[in-house]
Amino acid sequence: MKNINWQGVFPAATTHFKDDYSLDLLATTQHVEVMIEAGIHGVIMLGTVGENSSLEYSEKLDVLKATVEVVDNRIPVLTGVAEYTTSLACRYAVDALKSGVDGLMVLPAMVYKSDRRETMFHYRSIAKATDLPIMCYNNPVAYHVDITPDMFAEMSDQETLVAIKESSENVRRITDLINTVGDRYLLFSGVDDLALESIMLGAVGWVAGLVNAFPVENILLWNLAINGKYQEALEIYRWFTPLLHLDTHTKLVQYIKLAMTECGLGTETTRPPRLALKENERENILKIIRCGIKNRP
After folding, report:
1. 144 backbone φψ class: left, alpha, beta (φ>0; ψ -120 to 50)
2. Cα–Cα distance between 114 and 99 in angstroms, integer?
3. Per residue in 193-229, pLDDT tens?
4. Which among 25, 39, 49, 114 has most CB atoms closer than 10 A?
5. Domain 8-227, what fold?
6. Which SS3 state, helix, strand or coil, does residue 122 take?
7. Are 96 and 104 in contact (CB under 8 A)?
8. CA nearest to 105, candidates 1, 249, 4, 177
9. 3-state secondary structure of 162
10. Are 13 and 45 spatial neighbours (Cβ–Cβ below 8 Å)?
């Protein structure tokens, strides 16, 4: 397997829909292009923010093929793998490889909350289904399955498991992972409002959400932090943090798409059961977004 050197900002990109909820592949890929021009280092399609579970199987492959064609090998293209069964996840991994993607971001099986043994079986099975490199997505807050540092140590013999998206909201995990597995995995921050802390502790990448609406500012923060200009980075981070908090809510997709709309980078259309925000909730989120836009660096 070739050496994988994923690092930098990898947006968890949104999937764009038309007013009738059908896929808008053109808008989806145009938005990816905007983020590439801002300086992103890779892109992850069909993660949580990309509404993976709201798409039909064939639609997912359509999104991947369109994205791969537009990106044209300029940056790595990954796809989220979020299926209900291990066998379907393996099938999707094979089809994703055929679509031309460069890697997978694998979630635990949806709905059923697997135990330690079952979780590792799921990841090992997908890793054996193709030779695509895999980013393991650990998000016990949302998916109630925790992949602990010692589990990653046990799975370290599976060479296609190359990276970890750490989204436990426990920033201690970055240090615990490094102490447990050293540099065996590429470590990515997966929580927007813990990104700067994670970078300072050794994360080499950031799977970002609000980058969909603020790509230039997101890249600026990354560049300052990775170059050790922490005081300048901190000033950007303090401005950005109220917006980054939107990434940690159950309605993060609606919040991010509303921010994109306010920034002229898309629409807020999501597929039901996700619905557009209304009344006080909408006004409160708009206040945060508009304050951020007004005071952006």
Report:
1. left
2. 29
3. 999 999 999 999 999 999 999 999 999 999 999 999 9
4. 49
5. TIM Barrel (3.20.20)
6. helix
7. yes
8. 4
9. strand
10. yes
Domain definitions of the chain by residue range: 8-227
Kindly state the tokens that stand for 185.
């995995």
Tokens 């709309």 belong to 261
Q: Distances in Å between the alpha carbon of 88 and those of 94, 97, 109, 138, 266?
A: 10, 14, 10, 20, 31
- What secondary structure, in 3-state letters, does 279-295 show? HHHHHHHHHHHHHHHHC
Longest dimension (CA), the chain: 52
Would you say the pTM of this structure is higher than 0.90? yes
Q: List the Cα angle 284/290/294 in 5-degree steps.
A: 150
pLDDT one-digit tens code per residue, 6-61: 999 999 999 999 999 999 999 999 999 999 999 999 999 999 999 999 999 999 99
Q: Is 256 exposed, middle or buried (0-12, 13-18, 19+ CB in 10 A)?
A: buried
pLDDT in tens, 58-78: 999 999 999 999 999 999 999
Determine the length of the chain: 297
